[in-house]
């Protein structure tokens, strides 16, 4: 079952299609390949986002996702490509999957070591380039649905 936050975000997106620039949904096969590649199972809301939009922008807010299965030869906003790049480049933790880049050094991640009451990853922050012992990984959102609703709402407020 999809969360009320996610469904509310979808409703706002649907009512503001002019702000949406997405890749189109991706197949279940690509989603499974991504999960296997990263060693995770995506939460329901994020999986639906991937099936519906793939990845894309709502206004100036870019949400990372999936849009092709060749992760090694992809680029932004491919979540798998970017997460794997940071794992290789910065020894990025295996329990994190990047879904958003703040453009100020902090990325927002699905954190598989910080789960909500539904057993799904919460969204935590991670500062790229900061030594692991100094990372605080604050919980920014309880779920992907809450994150998406906040990003969409903030974008609409700035219109």
From TrEMBL:
- Organism's domain of life? Bacteria
Species this chain originates from: Streptococcus oricebi
InterPro entries, per database record: Knr4/Smi1-like_dom (IPR018958), Knr4/Smi1-like_sf (IPR037883)
Q: SUPFAM superfamilies, per this entry?
A: SMI1/KNR4-like
- A Pfam family matched by this chain, by name? SUKH_6
Ranges where the Knr4/Smi1-like domain occurs: 25-150
Q: What protein does this entry describe?
A: SMI1/KNR4 family protein
Q: Which regions span the lipid bilayer? A: none
């Amino acid at each position: 079952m999809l969360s009320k936050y996610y469904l509310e975000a979808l409703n706002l997106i649907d009512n503001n299609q002019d702000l949406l620039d997405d890749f189109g949904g991706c197949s279940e096969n690509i989603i499974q390949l991504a999960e296997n590649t990263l060693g995770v199972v995506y939460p329901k809301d994020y999986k639906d986002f991937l099936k519906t939009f793939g990845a894309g922008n709502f206004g100036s807010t870019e949400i990372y996702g999936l849009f092709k299965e060749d992760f090694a030869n992809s680029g932004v906003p491919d979540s798998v490509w970017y997460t794997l790049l940071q794992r290789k480049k910065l020894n990025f933790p295996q329990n994190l999957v990047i879904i958003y880049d703040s453009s100020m050094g902090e990325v927002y991640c699905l954190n598989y070591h910080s789960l909500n009451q539904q057993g799904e990853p919460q969204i935590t922050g991670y500062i790229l380039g900061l030594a692991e012992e100094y990372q605080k990984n604050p919980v920014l959102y309880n779920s992907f649905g809450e994150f998406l609703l906040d990003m969409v709402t903030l974008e609409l407020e700035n219109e």
